[in-house]
Amino acid sequence: MTSSEYANIDDLRKSFKFPPFKLRDVTNGNSEKSADPKVPFGWTVEEEEGEKTFVNSSKGEKWKTAFDENGRQYFYSLLTNQTVWNLAEASESDRGSHGVEGRIEPDFAKEVLHLEPLPLKMVQKQGPLSKAKADDQGKKAKKPSWSQSYAVLVENIVYFYKDMKIAASAKAKSISSLGKPELTLQLDNAKLSSSPDEKRKEVLMLSLSNGVVYLLHHEDEEILQHWRQSFENNIEAIKTTSVTTGSSSKEIENLPVRPELSRMCSNSSIISEERTKVADRLLHWFKRRPSLEVLQRKGIIKDAVFGSSLTAICEREKTKIPRFVHACLAAVEKRGLDVDGIYRISGNMSLVQKLRHIVDQNEFYDLLCPSWDVHTITGALKLFFRELSEPVFTFALFDKFLDAYRITDHAQKISAYREVISRLPPFHAETMKRLFKHLTEVIRHGSANRMQSQALAIVFGPTLLWPESKSKDVTLAASMVYQGQVVEFMIIEFKSIFS
Question: Hey, what's the torsion of the CAs at 105, 109, 113, 118, to 10 degrees?
Answer without folding.
Answer: -60
